[in-house]
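Protocol step 4 of 6: structure prediction from sequence.
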Amino acid sequence: MPSFHQILVPVDGSPPSEKALDEAIRLARLNGARLTLLHVVDEMGYVNGFESAVNYLNDIIPLMRVAGEKLLAHDRQKALDQGLQADSVLIDEGPGRICEHVAEQAALAKADLIVVGSHGRRGIGRLLLGSDAEQIVRHALVPVLVIRAPVEGATP
């Protein structure tokens, strides 16, 4: 089994993201690795065309930043409670695909593994929504462990 020293975990608060964080914590404990938690504020993720640009820039984006900071603080504390060293990074630098931000942060953190959650969408849902996890796999220069969303009614 390879040994990991620095694990990058992109988080967004979704159930697959929480599962990925749990797995990253488990791997970090096994390997004595450090975690870097990353949240990318997806500024275009909530645009619906009904809000004014001024309201979006002045009200909605700042709320997204605050929510991202709270998420990172919660997830970092979860790692610290397990006796791990953990850093957190919030990226809200405007345009850019999430996968590009993840790949850049992996290089900056000198990560030797990325652990990411996936909703596991198939068919038209995947085509319409795309897959951040798939794009991270395509752009990453280090191994990526993709953790699927919990399946309702399935046994672990």
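Step 5 (inspection) to follow. Residues 124-130 have pLDDT under 50 and may be disordered.
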